Amino acid sequence: MAKHVVVIGAVALGPKAASRLKRLAPDTEITMIDQANFISFGGCGIPYFVSGEVNSVDALRSTNYGAIRDPRYFIDRGINMLNETRVTAIDRAAHTVSTEHVRTGEKKTFSYDKLVLGTGSIPKMPPVEGRDLGNVTSATKLEAAQLVRDACASGKVASAVVVGGGFIGLEMAVALADMWGVKTSVVEFMDQLMPGVLSPVLADMVRHDLESNGVSVYTSEKVMRLEGKDGMVTRAVTDKRTLDADLVIFATGFAPNSALAQAAGLDIDPVTKGILVNDHMQTSDPDIYAGGDCVAVPNLISGKPACFQLGSIANRQGRVIGTNLAGGDATFKGAVGTWAVKLFKISACGVGLTPARAESAGFAPLAVNVEQLDRAHFYPEKEMMTLELVVDKNTRQMLGLQGVCTAGDALKARIDAAATMLQFGPRTLDDLSNAEAAYAPPFSGALDTLNVVANVADNVLAGRLVPLSSREFSNLWKERDVNHVYFVDSRPAAASEKTAAAYPGQWHALPLEALFADDAAEKLAALPKDRPMALICNTGLRSYEVMLKLRRAGFDNLSMALGGMQTMIKRGETF
Amino acid sequence: MAKHVVVIGAVALGPKAASRLKRLAPDTEITMIDQANFISFGGCGIPYFVSGEVNSVDALRSTNYGAIRDPRYFIDRGINMLNETRVTAIDRAAHTVSTEHVRTGEKKTFSYDKLVLGTGSIPKMPPVEGRDLGNVTSATKLEAAQLVRDACASGKVASAVVVGGGFIGLEMAVALADMWGVKTSVVEFMDQLMPGVLSPVLADMVRHDLESNGVSVYTSEKVMRLEGKDGMVTRAVTDKRTLDADLVIFATGFAPNSALAQAAGLDIDPVTKGILVNDHMQTSDPDIYAGGDCVAVPNLISGKPACFQLGSIANRQGRVIGTNLAGGDATFKGAVGTWAVKLFKISACGVGLTPARAESAGFAPLAVNVEQLDRAHFYPEKEMMTLELVVDKNTRQMLGLQGVCTAGDALKARIDAAATMLQFGPRTLDDLSNAEAAYAPPFSGALDTLNVVANVADNVLAGRLVPLSSREFSNLWKERDVNHVYFVDSRPAAASEKTAAAYPGQWHALPLEALFADDAAEKLAALPKDRPMALICNTGLRSYEVMLKLRRAGFDNLSMALGGMQTMIKRGETF
Questions:
Q1: What is the average pLDDT value for chain B, to the nearest integer?
Q2: B409: distance to nearest CA of chain A, Å?
Q3: For FRET with B497, which of A71, A295, B259, B490 sits at 20 to 30 Å CA-CA?
């Protein structure tokens, strides 16, 4: 059992490891060191502090039972807590760390038997001219959050630019626009929001939610420089436009803070720059543990090292480290990359690989999305849920599941069920087709959306259902003058005929019911056999039936829009 | 590939199997037979039809896209649908089934290449005198539901008795009391509500929700006879009291309807009476498939055959049968027993074994419950969630997880994550401790309740946390005059001192904070070393810290209330 343990970093991983160790082995001498003043805070709560939903900084650094985790909290519990203290070097041979007080400059050296690195991450700030202007900030420190909130509360922020369309950027955009009424723009370098975690179709839904709530979204666009006046930012200039900006927030990702580890000669993953650890959370030096935002652990789906920078992961890794330091045998085998974000009306949530990520990991991905109510269709209160499944075409392996829904918890239920399948996998789409989730009409349909999305993938792989992504259908429609696609709408007559009337000769109503009517043969005979046909209905259920019927009738150039009009509407497309 | 397939039963399994088969192998000749007039309906929606939340019977027998599944629906799709037709016998040697029309008495014989049994279940009606009186019914047929709803709508039902405190009984009680204002009593033969799916502690919460919303609950009580006037029921007489009753609903469980199968010599599980099937859903006769309420499949945790009578299971089994009949190779390996129910303010949801069921399956169960918010504690909207985990003490195997929360979907998310772990298990509590669920402050705490409940079980198995169930603590408190237990309340001073003042000399305030104060040693010295101490706080977090501190100070007869005051409050206990 360890005698003296030094913990570097006191945000999430460090305090968890230290507290767990102290409970298991109270005689251990523990020194925890952090360069900041505020320690042990919930960084993921910053957007809610900025919005004002969370009243005070103290709420973000209090326990579930209301105690404030300031240095005194840890000292009371027998942990030697040093804040405002920077670790300048680790001497592995001597088993010491050197420190310097950030205000007084006082230098000290601490010896350790075991060392824990919870050094976190640092915002990736692109080298943009003007980034040192006032009211330009990242959004990871409590101090920065206070700055943003004060700026908004002062009424001096009329417009803001958020650079980066990932979770944190979007959470900040929602906080600014929704709670403070700031005219907010999001500028994202990639060609969609939430790249890497959402497919293009679902990213369209996120964009539509933001845009319909007053946030401007500019993708495939790069901030070139910031301009200011009297030292304060006033404008952000992109490669395409100039945006007014009294506030600029960079949410352009985080790099593992692995400099100390690297200087000490520990193994670092060359791609992610995260500190490499084994499944006991030990670095290449068995006396040094590491966890949280600064490490790379296996992505359990791709098998490759990846950085999962979430408070949830850090807490669980911290517990594993605490247990192992106390002589236990706990493991952390990797992660599958679950995430969730609440925007304006919708939430988005996911796990695993997107089609693009799957492809670069060497898989042959198929992505299919469905729209289905989150409850029994006859239950009075219900919401339409989008789920998109990514599977490998050759092995049928489940690779990822992402979703969008106004009912965030109901969405989370589906994602989490898939997440534990993936975590303790591998699993196939056939497993998902038969995944057992709690059923009663106020909670789901008899065939859960989880099962249905797997069944759709099965039908696609079997060649029964020829899919068009919602984007592909939209593009076909836009190019209808040149591609000669015959568009068939199988919604009930009232809906399909109304749209057909708006686009005479281009959009064709063929309600599913018509194929069971007495004149069905006539209806079929009137369809062109020599043109590709693109089918659509409300969610896809009717189109699939129509597709099977038409194929039996000798039509073979058929495809259908996944998620039908419901996916279109969520993407902001109208017909 | 099958030439002629006969399907007996057209509620959930049959239609699913037939429709799937027809899509995969459209040339198959399919005859589907059901004795009822209304077919293919969502029986699980009946309580919502009774309550009036679902407007019409047709809503329960329509597809997700609004088509009504009457016989015509199936005939349109090439399935020879015969309703109001009873199958009287199966001749396996001749490969025929004999039928009789329920109204005309017309007899027919159908030959089959493959046969599907989806004969469902029949309500277990105890042989109670008076059960043939008017307004005495079960609640499984649409016709019975219509009767109940008409009786309520007529205003002639002032009081009702529901016999049976399982899901359906409670859903019906909620429908009657909440929507129709009927004075409703639930009589349950066992000593708790929801026996077999909830532990006593969580069952107390369900009882409290019902009672605080005007439903009377009588457990350990048996309906002996029903009395009536003019042929209509007026009273239910139990072994303890007489209850007014203008309506009596029996919700006393369902027996697999396996009579036809048994008469045909198919293998039947002697315990459950369900038809035995292999993982392809074939009975002991490979030409006969069966699924839904009438079969027994492995409980994947206990390994024993069990009947899982839910529309969700039937639909998934139906798809497997349809696939296999079309020459595919789909399997259904068993189930883990997920369930969910929405009551008045709370929902309850669970998976796997209760402590009692685990014990009778040969495990050595430990059950622990926690109370934790469903979101980050600093997030403005949040609900307290109860989760109870059942694990095997020797192997640490996860056996079950049940919960209660006002936020039903948030609860379902936790249960479903555990459900897929169990389904594709076995898994241990250490796996659950590290289960990865989607995290962001609007969706969970950084350590999800799923992880926390596993950590508590870990602490109990390690002997660090000596638990009292909430019921055990209540009982100790009730017997405080004889057991000399010293009760310690570690909530903040305001709360603990108020309760202590109400019970001077019996209830002792010892806020966690006091143990870090300057006079902590004095406080400790004042505690009795010779008496057992029972600790409590708001949720258990503080008690655990106090327990560790007191143990270090030499106290060794310590135990603490799991879930603290929050579990007490949900159980309706006040101090």
A1: 95
A2: 5
A3: A71
Nearest to A379 among B48, B315, B548 (CB): B48
ipTM score of the complex? Answer: 0.96
Query: Across the interface, which of A378, A409, A427 has its CB nearest the CB of B42?
Result: A378
CA angle A409, A49, A68 (to 5 degrees): 95
**How is residue B435 annotated by DSSP?**
-
Instruction: Give me the DSSP letters along A510-521.
Output: --GGGGGSTTHH
CA distance B450 to B373: 11
Helix orientation angle between B311-325 and B13-24, rounded to the nearest 10 degrees: 30
Burial class (CB in 10 A: 0-12, 13-18, 19+), A150: exposed
Can you give the pTM of this predicted structure?
Answer: 0.97
Min Cα–Cα distance to chain A from B203, Å = 18
Measured between its terminal Cα atoms, the distance across chain B in Å is 69
Partner residue opposite A438 with nearest CB, options B416, B435, B464: B416
Distance CA B16, CA B87 (A): 19
Q: What is the pLDDT of residues B420-430, one digit of tens each?
A: 999 999 999 99
Do residues B398 and B428 make contact, with C-beta atoms less than 8 angstroms apart?
yes
Residue B190 DSSP symbol: S
- Cβ contacts of A461 on chain B, cutoff 8 Å: none
pLDDT band at A454 (very low <50, low <70, confident <90, very high): very high
Q: Which residues in chain A have their CB less than 8 angstroms from residue B53's CB?
A: 379-380
Query: Using CA atoms, how far apart are residues A416 and B437, in angstroms rounded to an integer?
Result: 5
Nearest CA in chain B to A317: B434
Neighbours of A553 (CB within 10 A): 15
Sequence-distant (6+) residues with CB within 8 A of A257 are: A119, A120, A121, A122, A293, A294
Instruction: Determine, for residues A315 and B447 on separate chains, whether the beta-carbon distance falls below 8 Å.
Output: yes
Task: Give A60's contacts in chain B (Cβ within 8 Å).
Answer: 378
Residues B253/B269, Cβ–Cβ less than 8 Å = no
CB contact under 8 A, B464 and A341: no
- For residue B132, give the amino acid letter: D
| Contact call for B419 and A424, based on CB within 8 A | no
Contacts of residue B42 in chain A, CB cutoff 8 Å? 376, 378, 441, 446
Cis status, amide bond into A195, omega within 30 of 0 = no
| Closest alpha carbon to B506 in B525, B531, B529 | B531
DSSP code for B274:
P
Query: A44 catalytic, yes or no?
Result: yes
Of B283, B411, B294, which is closest to residue B345 (Cα–Cα)?
B411
Distances (CA, A) of B33 to A214, A524, B72, B93, B294: 56, 31, 13, 20, 16
Between CA A391 and CA A105 the distance in angstroms is 55
B513 residue type, one letter: E
What pLDDT sits at residue A2?
58
Is B443–A342 a contact, with Cβ atoms under 8 angstroms apart?
A: yes
Note the Cα B431 to chain centre separation in Å: 24
Determine, for residues A440 and B379 on separate chains, whether the beta-carbon distance falls below 8 Å: no
Separation of alpha carbons B417 and B295, rounded Å: 26
Residue A43 pLDDT > 90: no
Q: At what angle do helices A167-174 and A200-211 cross, to 10 degrees?
A: 20
C-alpha B17: how far from chain center: 26
Q: Is the Cβ pair A440, B62 closer than 8 Å?
A: no
CB contact under 8 A, B436 and A423: yes
Are the beta carbons of B167 and A440 separated by less than 8 Å? Answer: yes
Nearest chain A residue (CA) to B52: A380
Task: Please list every residue in chain B whose beta carbon sits closer than 8 Å to the beta carbon of residue A377.
Answer: 59, 62-64
Going by DSSP bridges, is the β-strand pair A558-561/B295-298 parallel, antiparallel, or unpaired?
Answer: unpaired
Which residues contact residue A187 at a Cβ distance below 8 angstroms, ignoring those fewer than 6 apart?
A161, A162, A163, A164, A165, A218, A221, A222, A223, A236, A238, A243
